[in-house]
Amino acid sequence: SQTIHQWPATLVQPVGSPLSLECTVEGTSNPNLYWYRQAAGRGLQLLFYSVGIGQISSEVPQNLSASRPQDRQFILSSKKLLLSDSGFYLCAWGLGRAISGNTIYFGEGSWLTVV
Amino acid sequence: DQQVKQNSPSLSVQEGRISILNCDYTNSMFDYFLWYKKYPAEGPTFLISISSIKDKNEDGRFTVFLNKSAKHLSLHIVPSQPGDSAVYFCAASANFGNEKLTFGTGTRLTIIP
């Protein structure tokens, strides 16, 4: 069966520091990968998605970036964090409409507090 | 521009009764709809979905209804149980090949014992 893991689970970072959140999927190949963010009191906002290695689409202009160095690895980064980057970050995977409908499956989430 | 809206931020229901969560959308290109359940500090878990070719889908205690003309869907939980207390997100996608989902802001459901 497929599993998804993301880490770290919680981190507190000062303003201006870098960020790296990592996500890996096991038990499948060539998944579509997603990074979402849930800010306090807000819904889930799509940040980036990837349909293959090195292919990244950005949904929201911001100081975050994403990379997909391997088929099942998705990384969210920032060179300099802002206070507004605080939130709950979620990685998700799917296999495309033809295989799994439109269902995507989420990781456990990473709490980021920028201080 | 909020394309998927959940206008009720919270809902309280007595245990054993029916819970009805509502969702409205504006994008007529959406053709697939999903409900996710989320506990605090955890990732959302998939609950139930419906394609636009149907108007109802049922899975155990959960039923989703879709009214395309009104651009409205609802999730019914019968009977409601204490473990159903969570935040419920409505999501929608358009037929562009991947599963890029647009989520609503969520409704916090509290089941009162």
Q: Please give the number of β-strands of chain A.
A: 11
Q: What is the molecular shape of chain B?
A: globular
Following the backbone from N to C, one meets helices and strands of chain B in this order, namely: EEEEEEEEEEE
The Rg value of chain A, from CA coordinates, equals 14 Å
- Please, what is the average pLDDT of chain B? 94
Oligomer: heterodimer
Outline the low-pLDDT stretches of chain A.
none
Largest interface, C-beta closer than 8 angstroms, per-chain residues = A-B, 27 and 27 residues
Strand content of chain A: over 45%
Short description:
The complex is a heterodimer of chains A (115) and B (113). With 115 residues, chain A is mainly β. Chain A is built from one helix and eleven strands.
Features:
heterodimer; A: 115 residues; four-stranded antiparallel sheet; B: 113 residues; mainly beta; six-stranded mixed sheet; 11 strands; 0% helix
Characterise the protein shown here.
- The complex is a heterodimer of chains A (115) and B (113).
- Chain A is mainly beta and 115 residues long.
- Chain A contains one helix and eleven strands; from the N terminus they run E-E-E-E-E-E-E-E-E-H-E-E.
- Chain A has one helix spanning 97-100; strands at 3-7, 10-13, 19-26, 32-38, 44-52, 55-58, 64-70, 73-78, 87-94, 105-106, 110-114.
- In chain A, strands 2, 4, 5, 6, 9, 10 and 11 form a seven-stranded mixed β-sheet that branches. Chain A has a four-stranded antiparallel β-sheet with strand order 1-3-8-7, with no helix packed on it.
- In chain A, strand 7 and strand 8 form a beta hairpin.
- The model of chain A has no long low-confidence stretch (mean pLDDT 91).
- By secondary structure, chain B is mainly β.
- Chain B is 0% helix and 56% strand.
- Chain B has strands spanning 4-5, 10-14, 19-25, 30-38, 45-51, 56-59, 62-67, 72-77, 86-94, 102-103, 107-112.
- Chain B is globular and about 40 Å long.
- In chain B, 35% of the residues are buried.
- The interface between A and B is medium-sized, with 27 and 27 residues.
